[in-house]
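Working notes for the structural subgroup meeting. M.R. asked for a predicted model of this chain before we commit to crystallization trials. I am recording the input and output together here so anyone reviewing the notebook later can reproduce the run.

Input as submitted:
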Amino acid sequence: MEQIVSTGIIDSYFAKLKSNLSIDVAIVGGGPSGIVAAYYLAKAGKKVALFDRKLAPGGGMWGGAMMFNDIVVQEEAMPIVKELGVSYHDAGNGTYIMDSVHTTSALIYQATKAGATIFNCYSVEDVVFHNDAVAGVVVNWAPVIREGMHVDPLTIMAKAVLEGTGHDCEVARTVARKNDIKLNTPTGGVIGERSFGKGLVQTTRDLVYNTKLKVTTAKYYIPSGRCIRAVDYSHRNPDGSVGTIPDSLMKPFKTKAGRTVYDGGGITPDVKIEPEKYAKVTQELVLQDMIFDFVNEYAATHPTIATPSEFVLSDELFNEFKEYLKKREFEYETASQLVLERLVKATQDEKYYDQVSSQVEQLKKSLGHSIDRDLDVFKKEISDILSDQLMERYYMQEGVIEYHIRNDKDIAKALEVLSNNEEYQKILK
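Returned structure, recorded in token form:
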């Protein structure tokens, strides 16, 4: 029996490998971009093979952020998400949350179902050239490369090779290195070799066992001399975590104009605008996807709406949204109601309820809410989110930005300050 199993695996695998020695497209790197590319190419009838050095293709998407297995995608990716049947929920502001394990599994399943072949534990050592054109890749077992063993590789011939290795750009680097080939980029080399974020410029250095060291080589500053970085890696908490720089450690210094500012902790705005705090009804409308679902249903029967520069949410449309909520039987409990319920239970358990029952009943009346009333009271903030969703649905992210240019309170305040020269000069002093 054991021999039958082994024979079946060997025969099947080598038949698969042999059939992919000559293909239309070789994809190097099995992250989400490589897998999605494999899906669409295979769907278009191309013979596609994807090579990934890891045991589990999918790149870093499996672990989400810090092994919190959820990922965030923007509106631009949603047509792909919907086509591949990936579950998601709207997180607002043009972003959507998906389970990373479910998503990665769905991408791999759909790519292979479309006809693409995925080879895991494969490293691409080199690129094949015929007549000064890329004609395939040279592959080997990933453990062979990792252990530095001298084992001859195999050649996969391909009409096209697709780079999917991310920041490393391994294929492009190899192409640029061989025969002094100059890439069609402004620098003639690979663009994006260095990544930066949150104020730091970092460069990678290769280490053993296919690992890399990320070294901070520079910081980003605004013209006045303030670094945009908000955390200090040179001072860590006892558990090794990094926190923000406390106010006590911030030091004042002068700009060229003589204005006092403070180092560390990022850039403190000269004119502070408090972030929006939404009512419970607004939060629940978002969390229960009521606004998202309404916008989709509305778009199905209304092919166009006013442009972002002209759009104004009408009372008629808002009332239509209210009727939609009634149809969906929208309900929610406020935080104060939940606290009151716990209070009632506590007083009953402690046998105090009879003494305070009248006060409790009065609180129930005071804290009770009507959905119709709440929708009217918080109409402004609900309308703002509803408008954002409509802009995003009809005009994508560009529409949201254009709409916000004339409706964003931060922009309005900035224009107000800039148009008042006296106030502006006070800030600069």
